Amino acid sequence: MAYTVLKIRYNLDDEIPPIGQRWYSHFLQRHPTLETRFSRALDNFRAVAITPQLVRSWLNLFKMTLERYSITLYNVWNMDETDIAMGLIGRSKVVISRTTAERYMRQPGNRNWVSILETIGGTGRALAPFFIFQGVLSTI
Q: Is the model's pLDDT at 93 over the cut of 90?
């Protein structure tokens, strides 16, 4: 990609001499507002589905529901699902703006997954994690 950028930027038709192995280090030194971070995978449907306003609205509704029905933290549980995609590459290092907090790389959602459920209560109590693997339907 660096070669393509150079050709377009300088309108070059000739062969470009090879760039060094650590050309990106010099690039980052020239652009102190950029840095490298490891990206994290995020399914495309999740990337477009959530907004800060949506989260604020949900949290306000949750708080009002707890108050309305006198629900204590002892009876509040959060279950979080973490998925591990089988057969996908791991983390990738990307160059982003230093002010950018998000560093997700979108991926297709058609993979086999192992799900891990973590559960913690409003008072800090935690249950053991629960693992879910793809099953096989069998008849006896």
A: no
